[in-house]
Amino acid sequence: MASLSIVLPAYNEEANVEDTVRDVSTVAQQLRLDYEILVVNDGSSDRTGEIVRELVPEIPALRLVEHYPNRGYGGALKAGFESASKEVIAFVPADGQFLFTEIDRFLDGIATADLVCGYRAHRQDNLLRRLNGWGWNSLVRLLFGYLCRDIDCGFKLLRREVVDRVPLPSDGAMVDTELLAGAHARGFRIAEVPVTHLSRTAGAATGANPRVVLKAFRELLSFRLRLSQEMRMAHSRTFSR
Question: Which of 5, 42, 68, 233 is the most buried (most CB within 10 A)?
Fold first, then answer.
């Protein structure tokens, strides 16, 4: 198995981050992985960063990445990618809504793919978030074709080459679409695996914030135009050689 960086974006997750880090560390040790855990404290106003710093002496593979002010989900992921030092990168939120024990499904998938996307088989969100997710996935599919069934599922695994070659300008909720559409356009192989989704027991999700949603829709249309231009230019360079 290639070495693995595990990125945990965290924003105001003081109630969840310790349990999530311990669970991830236990699973990685059980699988005998060459791994590192990168918690990205995305400008939290609570004790998220302090809790992780207290865990570092106990968990040698753990590193804390911090930035202020809050950049957003995409900014947190990119900070984790930039700090990652291993050949393969997994990311999963620090909110405790996924079971890291299911990473073995992703590791099996990466043997024949470049990027493995989880999909929430039974999504444990309220009706509004499920409707937002359905609408977003439908719009992305209309603009880019089929990429995966649950594009914003926060549990994914990818080869470093994907991060190196796919531009990710968004600091917000658009980042998953940029990653998947950009990877697909560049010929990377994408696989999917089902994952268990758990109800949030503490903290507050921010993805359904109307301002976040509206910004993502604006960025989506802009990204569609930009990606088309990039691909046309790439094809022109290929045929002009």
Answer: 42
Q: Smallest Cα–Cα separation from 176: which of 203, 196, 199, 149?
A: 149
What is the pTM assigned to this prediction?
0.85
Q: Round to whole Å and give the CA distance between 59 and 84.
A: 17
Name the residue with tokens 């400008």.
Answer: 43
| Tokens linked to 42 | 């995305």
Which residues 6+ apart lie within 8 Å of 51 measured at CB? 14, 17, 18
The whole-angstrom distance between residue 234's C-alpha and the CA centroid of its chain comes to: 26
Find all residues with CB under 8 Å of 204, minimum gap 6, and list them.
12
90-131: pLDDT as tens digits: 999 999 999 999 999 999 999 999 999 999 987 767 777 777
All residues at 6 or more sequence positions from 32 whose CB lies less than 8 Å from its CB, including other chains: none
Domains of the chain in start order, with CATH, are 4-239 (3.90.550.10)
- Whole-angstrom distance, CA of residue 172 vs CA of residue 219: 9
